[in-house]
Specification:
Helix content is 19%, strand content 17%. By secondary structure, it is an alpha/beta fold. It has helices spanning 4-8, 243-253, 308-327, 364-386, 397-410, 420-427, and strands at 17-19, 40-42, 63-65, 86-88, 108-110, 131-133, 154-156, 177-179, 205-212, 216-222, 227-233, 262-268, 271-276, 284-285, 330-331, 340-342, 348-350, 357-358. An 8-stranded parallel β-sheet has the order 1-2-3-4-5-6-7-8. A 5-stranded antiparallel β-sheet has the order 9-10-11-13-12, with helices on one face. GO terms for molecular function: ATP binding; protein kinase activity. Pfam families: LRR_8 (PF13855), Pkinase (PF00069).
């Protein structure tokens, strides 16, 4: 993090990345002295409500973060920024999204947790968009022009007021990660019926935090006879939607060898939670989340190298797990290596249902389309894992077969993608 004092003193000349958190109410004009080098500007967690007309002089700026400020509109000056490909306005009060507010070449737009009731009719002009986060707004419908956004890969629509899911959305050729729980047509009103028990939080002694995600905090906890993991949800809404929808999807998914086992749930007036089996310490994350550069695709530690036989074993387990989920009318919405854990034998544990959706109320056609969207995500996962294998393994027959399956799963025409049961048979 930088300081305004450093900027004013000229100590930041030549930087490519600037972050200021100083309760700013006005845009610091000194930032313009960095116009020839600045590529990433992070002014999140301030009190800004607008941008000056001179903002366009930041001609090398690629990414701007303005989350948790006081914006009520999207400044149209952004549309004139020649290099801008990413804009983040999470947690503002934005209700106004005017026509031609953003550059046509934008690739990544974050508007989570605002008060938007509609998107502009010209939204379809943003044809380069890959990643779109709109959870936690008041959207009642999506503009039909959005069907032109054929490069969209990840879309978050949870916790809005949508009255239906448009078929054109489910036919986008590159869409792989979709979340839409908690809308008018599918919002959970109560917990789904389950054989699991509602266990009071007082029954557990929370020892320490062992994990944290967008929706909640996971604690190591002592139960009556053993240690367990207790996930406590942070609040009424998360970046992926409502905690109630996540809990319902976990319960609906039921037990599976490769899913983290849910033992019970916690439902109290001010706290919702899940009690889960404690994961063996031998398990580690299969991958790392996407970076600013990869946008929608996972990353891996330097030197990460999975044998081709391991990729094959992981793929078989994932295909079986995803067949199970869709048989139970659950879409995961976030099929990624960073949401998958493995041990030294490459046994898989798959989790994080924050972006999951109950599909039971959708038509058979829409259920099928959503499965085929997730098939593409599976193809991306396999492709990402194949990128880590050794040069020698890349010459193997198994590598060729796995590559073929990944490409089959990723093809743009959804009707030509195999369902998970077919992928299982191909892998066998």
């Amino acid at each position: 993090m930088n300081t305004l004092a450093e900027l004013k003193a000229g100590k930041l000349n030549g930087v490519t990345h600037l972050q200021l958190v100083e309760e700013l109410t006005e845009f610091p004009p000194e930032i313009f002295t960095l116009a020839d080098t600045l590529e990433v500007l992070d002014l999140s967690n301030n009190n800004l409500s607008d941008l000056p007309a001179e903002f366009t002089c930041l001609h090398r700026l690629k990414r701007v973060f303005l989350s948790f400020n006081q914006f009520k509109h999207i400044p149209t000056v952004l549309a004139k920024c020649p290099a801008l490909i990413m804009v983040a306005f999470k947690g503002n009060q934005i209700s106004e999204f005017a026509l031609k507010s953003l550059p046509k070449h934008i690739e990544w737009l974050i508007l989570t947790d605002n008060t938007l009731s509609e998107l502009p009719e010209d939204f379809g002009n943003y044809t380069q968009l890959k990643k779109l986060a709109l959870a936690g707004n008041n959207l009642k419908h999506l503009p039909t022009s959005m069907a032109n956004c054929t490069n969209l890969e990840l879309v978050r629509l949870s916790a809005n007021n949508l009255t239906k899911l448009d078929d054109w959305l489910l036919e986008l050729p590159k869409l792989a990660w979709l979340a839409f729980a908690g809308n008018e047509f599918n919002k959970a009103q109560c917990l789904t019926k389950s054989t699991l028990k509602n266990t009071p939080l007082e029954n557990f002694q929370l020892k320490k935090v062992i994990g944290q995600g967008a929706s909640g905090v996971i604690h190591l906890a002592k139960a009556k006879h053993s240690n367990v993991a207790v996930k406590l949800f942070k609040g009424a809404i998360t970046s992926d939607g409502y905690p109630l929808d996540e809990v319902n999807c976990c319960l609906k998914a039921a037990n599976h060898t490769n899913l983290i086992n849910v033992l019970s749930y916690i439902e109290q007036s001010k706290q919702l939670g899940l009690v889960m089996e404690l994961i063996d310490t031998n398990y580690t994350n299969l991958g790392l989340p996407p970076s600013l550069e990869t946008c929608t695709r996972d990353t891996f530690n330097d030197g990460c190298n999975y044998p081709i036989e391991a990729v094959y074993k992981i793929a078989k387990q994932m295909a079986n797990t995803l067949t199970h989920l869709h048989d139970n009318y659950v879409s995961h919405g976030d099929i990624y290596a960073h949401n998958t854990m493995i041990n030294e034998q490459y046994d898989v544990l798959f989790g994080d249902f924050g972006a999951a959706t109950n599909l039971a109320m959708l038509s058979e056609y829409q259920q099928q389309q959503i499965q085929l969207i997730e098939v593409r995500a599976f193809g991306c996962l396999i492709e990402d894992l194949l990128s880590t294998v050794s040069t020698a393994d890349k010459q193997s027959e198994l590598f060729g077969k796995m590559s073929d399956i990944a490409q089959l799963a990723k093809q743009h025409e959804l009707s030509k993608r195999p369902k998970f049961k077919i992928i299982e048979s191909k892998l066998s």
